[in-house]
Amino acid sequence: MNGKKGSVEIDIPPPNKAKQPEDGNKSGFQGFPCKAWIWSAWEFCKDDVDRVIFSFKVGLAVLLVSLLILLRGAYEIFGTNIIWSIITVAIMFEYTVGETFNRGFNRALGSLLAAILAIAVGELAQLTGRIAEPIIIGLSIFLIAGAITSFVKLWPSLVPYEHGFRVIIFTYCFIIVSGYRMGNPIRTSMDRLYSIAIGGFVAAFVNVLVFPMWAGEQLHEELVNSFNSLADSLEECVKKYLEDEELNQAEFSEKVMDEFPDEPAYRKCRTTLNSSAKLESLADASKWEPPHGRFRNFFYPWSEYVKVGAVLRYCAYEVMALHGVLHSEIQAPYNLRIAFQSEIQDAANQAAELVRSLGKDIWNMKRSLKTSLLNRVHSSTERLQRVIDMHSYLLTPHYDLPDNSSNPLPKLSHVLPTTPYDVLDQEDDVCSTNHEKSSNHLTQNLTESYYEMMRKQSRRLNSWPSSEVDPFEKGGGFRIGILPQMRAVKSTAALSLTTFTSLLIEFVIRLDHLVEAVDELSKMAKFKHEDL
């Protein structure tokens, strides 16, 4: 009896204990999506508070229009046609003031054209008699509201007014059909226009007076942020290229998806490259806005912001190419990269400082001369070019790098010439010394042991994609023909540094176009002049 009790007590509790966690997990699973959604919504609102303000503004505009229906006195005046005011607010209200005015213009123009056409066709159809009237109305709907309007809105120059053509389609159909049943198209059209005008006025009134969001300010801020992102990305790329002794190569899938979590500035630079459509949209919306805030000039040159953004993306392409070299499979040895560190770092820092200065001038709406900054950028770039030219033997297969790659090469800054004659003399000395070194190294390599050659080859494979078949395994031993192959491998890896510096120099050259574009914007926008 006790044994059975004990067995019952042992068998029963596990199912009960197992069920309780399942119920708890089930209730937790049901509650988790709700908590996750609330948290994601909170983060979404915290990221941009203007989104919450926009939502409340739309609710306020719809409420004000709905009062015309809820209040008996207003409803007796406007009747059921006041519903068009609610539809107008829902269609016309946009995030920024410029977009709202643009939608309102398309809405008003489309409704006016549709009303005129509907009145004309309705009156003409009434003159033809009861039999032909529905036929004419049906043909007009097919031709005017369907075929012709849909074809014209596809015209390239009329694409910005696509919303207006859509308004023509459904407004014409509503007016012509309701006018046919009521028998008075003119009265129907006027009631629709009054209701649409009320809705448009309420939408514009709320959007302008209640926490207005100007597209011009957003365009201004977006362009300045792009300047800062480009400068940060350039400094980040050069810093990682020079400081990482062993560049960690990302997986192929990460390279394809551009997933580099340790490079936040790279993601911002990639966003800058994809900002063309956003800048053009904001510029188009800004043209509809009245003078406001710091932009008090009529006919403000918003299109120049788009041009500056295009030149900025032209420079950003080079920064993305630098990131491509940074994450490429072929890498120059660390001691070779560190030998040119000061020159590369100086050129990159000077270029980033110039980019930030241009963005700061746009933000402050000031026009300043960039002669001194440009001179410093050009001088640092020319210095880098001279160093690469003088020590080009380091990048050729005739020069062997030291075996100990952890020891960097001597700094090259102290050997820079001061005059053109010093450049020629040093080039002659370098050529003669280089010839002696190459012959000595070749003789030494021919007499090296098998073990030493295998050790050098394994070190070189750290900077080059490793191959499955070793050159020594093909021939079964040491051969003279292997030396040119190994030198070619070393030279190709060293040329990665040449590619990086060439892209950096090209970026500096493109900065001249960026300075010209910003200067043109400052002239047309009448920025305050400030001499450095």
TrEMBL record:
- List membrane-spanning regions: 52-71, 78-98, 104-122, 134-152, 164-181, 193-215
Q: Name one GO biological process term.
A: malate transport
Matches recorded under InterPro entries: ALMT
Q: Keywords, A to Z? A: Ion channel, Ion transport, Membrane, Transmembrane, Transmembrane helix, Transport
Subcellular localization is given as: Membrane
Region Disordered: what ranges? 1-26
Cellular component per GO, a single term? membrane
**Superkingdom as given in the UniProt entry:** Eukaryota
Membrane topology type: Multi-pass membrane protein
The entry's family comment says: Belongs to the aromatic acid exporter (TC 2.A.85) family.
Q: Know the name of this protein?
A: Aluminum-activated malate transporter 9-like
Q: Which organism is it from?
A: Gossypium schwendimanii
